[in-house]
Write a structure and sequence with these properties.
Length: 424
C-alpha cells in the first residue's frame, strides 16, 4: 500500500514541458531523459507507467541502430523548438556566414524513424537528442528522479504542490523527487527549499496557487480514476492522496459546481492524466513605480484636465488640447489598464463629449465631460490587484470614440481612443 501511495503522489506532481513551457525532466536509471509527464499509472497485476514526452535524450547500442542518414539544415529550415535547443546548447556550425545544425535520421528500436542530433558517439553506443512526440512504456522502479523548475515569477495561474508530514504542511513546487528516497519542495514566498524524506510523507496533494482564480483555470492537467468496477470517472483534479483516514480526494465539476469525492486505494486500478484544454496561463507584468500601461502595448499617462467656464447645471471639464498627446489609441473594445502606483478606487469610464469652443475667430474641438456623465456611466470596471501588487482595470467599451478613465479617489484621468469597427 505504501508503494501505491508514493506512485500516486509521483503521478500528481508531473507536468508537461513543451506545451506548458516548463522545463521538467523525468530521468530514468539507464540515463534516458524525457521531457513530458506520466500520462498513465496502472496498479495491481498490470502495474506500469506511461510517459508522454515531447523530446528525449537517450543512448542506444550501435548494433541496435538499424540505419542512419546524416545531413545538415540551415537555421531558417529548423522548427522554433530546434532553433531554441541549438542556441541553448551551442550546436550550430557556421559555414560561409550561415548557421547549420548537423542532424541524423535514425531508425531505432521501439521508436521508429526519428530526426535527432547525435550528442556523443562511441564504438559501441550513440547518444542522441530528439524533438519527437511519443509514449514510453516503463515501470516506476526504472525512474531515478523527476526534476521541475521553479515557477516563473510572473505566472499568475498555477497549482501549488502540497506535501504533508506528521508535523508540518509545505506548499510550493516539487523541484526534485527521488522515488523511495526523498523530495525537495520550493516555497516561493520565502524562496526556501525543504528536504523531506519519503518515509516522512503522510500525504501529497495540489492546491490553488492564486486565490483569485479557480482550480479549473489554474490546473494544467486533468486526471481520471480507473476504478476496480471497470468504471472510469469524469475528468477532474486529484486533490490529495495518502492521508490516514481517506486515501484519495478527487474533485470534478458539474454544471459549474465543484464536486469532491473520496476513494479508497483498493478501489482504484489506474489513473490517466491529460492536458487541460481550457488552461490558458496568465502572466503578470512588472511595472516601474508610477508606470501604467494599456493593453500592455502603450504607456498611458495622466491627462491634463481643465475646468471650463460654463453656466450649465454641472461643471464642465475638458482635456487640454495643447497636451492631447496623452490620448492613447487602441483598436479593440476590450481594455486592460495595469498600473504600479498608489491604490486606486471608485473608477468610472465614460465616453467624451466633443464640444466646440470659440476663441476669437478660431474654433477648437474639445473632449469634455461633466459629473453627470461620470455617474450615468454604465461601463462595468473590474478592479483587481495581482499577487505581485500590480493593479489591473478590465472593462469593455460599447462603441468607438474617445473615453475618460476617471480615478475619483485621486481626482485624475487617463484618456484613450479606440477606433475598432463596432459589430452590428
Amino acid at each position: 500500500m505504501k508503494n501505491r501511495v508514493l506512485l500516486l503522489c509521483m503521478l500528481m506532481s508531473i507536468t508537461s514541458s513543451t506545451i506548458l513551457a516548463q522545463n521538467e525532466r523525468i530521468i530514468m536509471k539507464d540515463g534516458t531523459i524525457y521531457n513530458g509527464f506520466i500520462s498513465h499509472q496502472k496498479f495491481g497485476e498490470n502495474a506500469g507507467v506511461e510517459i508522454s514526452y515531447s523530446d528525449f535524450t537517450r543512448q542506444f547500442r550501435v548494433e541496435d541502430v538499424e540505419s542512419e542518414e546524416q545531413y545538415r539544415k540551415k537555421e531558417a529550415e529548423l522548427s522554433s523548438e530546434w532553433q531554441a535547443w541549438a542556441n541553448e546548447n551551442n550546436k550550430y556550425t557556421n559555414v560561409g556566414g550561415e548557421k547549420f545544425l548537423s542532424l541524423s535520421r535514425l531508425k531505432l528500436p521501439k521508436v521508429g524513424s526519428v530526426e535527432c542530433c547525435v550528442i556523443e558517439r562511441g564504438t559501441k553506443f550513440v547518444k542522441v537528442f530528439a524533438i519527437h512526440d511519443g509514449v514510453a512504456q516503463t515501470t516506476s522502479s526504472n525512474i531515478r528522479c523527476i526534476i521541475k523548475e521553479k515557477r516563473d515569477p510572473l505566472l499568475l495561474t498555477d497549482m501549488n504542490d502540497v506535501v504533508k508530514t506528521e508535523m508540518d504542511s509545505y506548499e510550493g513546487i516539487l523541484l526534485e523527487q527521488y522515488p523511495g528516497a526523498q523530495l525537495k519542495i520550493w516555497n516561493s514566498y520565502n524562496n526556501s527549499i525543504i528536504v523531506v524524506n519519503n518515509n516522512e510523507v503522510k500525504a501529497k496533494g495540489r492546491g490553488k496557487f492564486n486565490p483569485d482564480y479557480s482550480i479549473w483555470e489554474q490546473t494544467k492537467f486533468l486526471e481520471q480514476l480507473e476504478l476496480s468496477s471497470n468504471v472510469t470517472t469524469e475528468k477532474g483534479v486529484l486533490i490529495e492522496s495518502g492521508t490516514d483516514n481517506v486515501n484519495i480526494i478527487f474533485m470534478t465539476q458539474k454544471d459549474g459546481r465543484d464536486i469532491t469525492r473520496q476513494y479508497s486505494y483498493k478501489d482504484v486500478k489506474g489513473i490517466k492524466k491529460t492536458i487541460n484544454p481550457n488552461y490558458n496561463p496568465i502572466y503578470d507584468v512588472i511595472l516601474e513605480k508610477g508606470e501604467s500601461r494599456i493593453n500592455r502595448d502603450s504607456v498611458i499617462r495622466y491627462a491634463n484636465i481643465k475646468e471650463y467656464q460654463y453656466t450649465g447645471p454641472f461643471k464642465l471639464y475638458y482635456l487640454d488640447p495643447v497636451l492631447d498627446s496623452t490620448i492613447v489609441k487602441v483598436n479593440t473594445p476590450d481594455i486592460a489598464i495595469e498600473t504600479n502606483m498608489e491604490p486606486i478606487s471608485d473608477v468610472y469610464v465614460f465616453k467624451a463629449t466633443p464640444r466646440n469652443a470659440q476663441s476669437g475667430k478660431e474654433t477648437t474641438e474639445l473632449f469634455t465631460y461633466t459629473y453627470e456623465d461620470l455617474f450615468n456611466s454604465n461601463i462595468n470596471v473590474k478592479h483587481s490587484v495581482s499577487i505581485n501588487g500590480t493593479q489591473k482595470l478590465l472593462f469593455t467599451v460599447p462603441e468607438p470614440g474617445v473615453y475618460f478613465v476617471y480615478l475619483r479617489n485621486l481626482n485624475k484621468c487617463w484618456v484613450f481612443e479606440t477606433d475598432y469597427v463596432a459589430k452590428k
